[in-house]
Amino acid sequence: MATVLITGCSSGIGLEAALSFARRGYQVCASMRDPARAGALLDRARGEGLDVEVPALDVTDDASVAAAVAAVESRYGGVDVLVNNAGVDCTGAVEATPLQQARAVMETNYWGALRTVRAVLPGMRSRGNGVIVNVSSLAARTRAVPHGGFYASSKAALGVVSEALSAEVAPFGVRVVCLEPGSYASRIHDNATVRQPSQDDPYAADEAWMKTFLSRAGEGAGDCREAAEAIVAAAEDPATPLHTVVGPGAEAAVEFARGAGYEEWLPLFLQQAEALAGPRPAAP
């Protein structure tokens, strides 16, 4: 029985991925920072007669990652599939967002993934096989929206390092996939680093407008089960491209971004945003 370790499983794509892997007979280690939040996952697993283990794992903590991986390897003999799903969101202007909050996004979305990768690789190399699925975002493949630069940067960095990692570990029989989901009805926004703009913040109105757009655009988000199935497929199919987008309109969005310059893309995006959130506020 193959063992999969997934990060960020308390809700959304991670929760659905844990169930999808379990249905296929994997030994599922569905980790999260606080296992007390595993109620929804465990209830659904019990309802389907599925076996899911919930270890504590905080991707921002070296000791937590090392301990969780060591425990899984000791109990099950190794991690066959690693799914780096844990992530946080951040909406805010480049100038105004406190650097501490900006760093927190990179700490989870980029460094957090690298911590788990580095922890499982010795075992994967020694066995001569393994799969690493890094869950990035469509935002890393299109264009960064206003106030979305820090989130997109963290996910773009994950995509770039996945390319280097793939070439480095392929000779050891380890495969890497960077899955880039579009908009899904997850709870990543609940994990956002939130700043409190001051009354004289020159970006406050524009940021609020962008948050309104993101909220309304998210009302048509896809079902996380689709993204979960894509993760399982990526883990099982050796022909999966390193960069794999998933979600309604995702391929079209990537193709347009690839063919259009930023100057062409931005007016079209702002037009779409205003259609959902109303006119963009004028600069104070």
From TrEMBL:
It holds the Pfam family adh_short. InterPro entries: KR_dom, NAD(P)-bd_dom_sf, Sc_DH/Rdtase_CS, SDR_fam, SDR_oxidoreductase. SMART domains: PKS_KR. It comes from the Bacteria. One of its GO terms (molecular function) is oxidoreductase activity. Residues 2-164 form the Ketoreductase domain. Keywords: Oxidoreductase. Signal peptide: none annotated. PROSITE patterns: ADH_SHORT. Belongs to the short-chain dehydrogenases/reductases (SDR) family. This is Short-chain dehydrogenase/reductase. It comes from Streptomyces minutiscleroticus.
